[in-house]
Amino acid sequence: MRSKGFYYLSAFIAIIMLASLACIGGGLLPSAGDSGGAVSSLTDAHNAVAQIEADGTFMDPQVGLVVNGAGRGSGFIIDPSGIAVTNNHVVTGAALLKVFLNGEQHSARVLGASECSDLAVIQIDDGSGNFPYLSWYTGQPATGEEVYAAGFPLGEPEFSLTKGIISKELADRESTCASLDHVLGHDATINPGNSGGPLLTADGQVIGINYASRAEARQSFAIPAQVAMPIVDQLRKGQDLDSIGVNGQAVISDDGQLSGVWVASVKSGSPADETGLQPGDIIYQLEGLVLATDGSMKDYCSILRSHKASDTLSMTVIRFASGEMLDGQLNGRQLAVTGQFDTSTTSTSTSTSTTSSGELVTFTDENNFYQIDLPGDWQYEQNRDTQNNHYYIDTFTSPDGNALIENIVYNDGTAFQGKDEAKFG
């Protein structure tokens, strides 16, 4: 079925890969040893790098409503008590968190998050553990320096490590999910699922935190350690920074007439929740300023950074599913319907435009694990795990190649992974 310009998946247990990341990765066989203490070598870094699963209900601007979904990203421990760092977009708005470390499952909770820096700090278990942890790199990153991207790409349980060099020390990286003065550009491949994982030096120290990539240019991006460290220090104390409590990303319509911050999920009890924001809303204006007109979070974050967290801010919201316009205030009056918005001819994206003229058809995979409604002119391709025959990958691509949906299906039915990707313009 089609609803208001978006393609909606049927209800299923899904694992949505987080962030606009690349699709090719590599791995390294981990070495033995998982006792507590600072990791002192790249070989042992896997002991302090975790896979993070965020379970909940999310509204994705490309896929639509995902009920009881589980998004998987990466993170890393920075303290033996189990304090770990990841991306805001990996964890915020989730009903519960699961952390997988060296084959064992742990519980976790969010201590603090920063939407505009795309950082979050979580506490694994109750804080009484003795976990191995990574140390920050306190030197100055240098162009040409050898680096390694660590994490769990594609939602798979195997630890992965890819090698590259720093290509830019001060890359300009206003993006759909963060607004930072500068980030590190590097060419170590990162994939969906690498979000929040560390970028390491040859000595196993954290020089950056991976969060995005430009796949067609073979460029990856990481938040520099020297930028992240003071923010992490605040977040681990239980203080949010430059946040209203949403897991959001900048969106803009194909014709540029509609833009804003798409809300994928909302943190319970946050200012966003108190004012009535819902998953699927588009924050159109904040303090009268139309947001994301350049396709980035820059204006949204500039407003938050120029006010205190307790300040009252006017807000205009488009509830895309119902076509309603709502006005209200953060830290003030709740959102109320003030008008209607015509969504019948508007579609939003996080990248270049995607076109299709085909009638919608329902596709069911060969094992009946999922169904998806897509235009009939999208191309379909299946690839199998030829070595072990444990899974197969169904890929759907729009005619212009600017969007794809990739579903990874395990033959035992225990996990279904979906990824949607739009290319950067």
Shape from CA axes?
A: globular
Largest beta-sheet details? 8 strands, antiparallel
Q: Count the E strands.
A: 31
Secondary structure category: mainly beta
Helix content: under 10%
- Could you tell me how far the N terminus lies from the C terminus, measured between alpha carbons in angstroms? 28 Å
Radius of gyration, in angstroms, nearest whole number:
21 Å
β content, as a range? 35-45%
Number of helices: 4
Average pLDDT value? Answer: 81
Uncertain stretches: 1-34, 347-356, 419-425
Structure, described:
By secondary structure, the protein is mainly β. Helix content is 7%, strand content 44%. The chain contains four helices and 31 strands. The strands form seven sheets. Strands 18, 19, 20, 21, 22, 23, 24 and 25 form an eight-stranded antiparallel beta sheet that branches. A hairpin with a 2-residue loop joins strand 1 (2-3) and strand 2 (6-7). The longest helix is centred in the middle third of the chain and has 11 residues, at 225-235. It is globular and about 60 Å long. Mean pLDDT is 81; it is low at 1-34, 347-356 and 419-425.
Brief write-up:
With 425 residues, the protein is mainly beta.
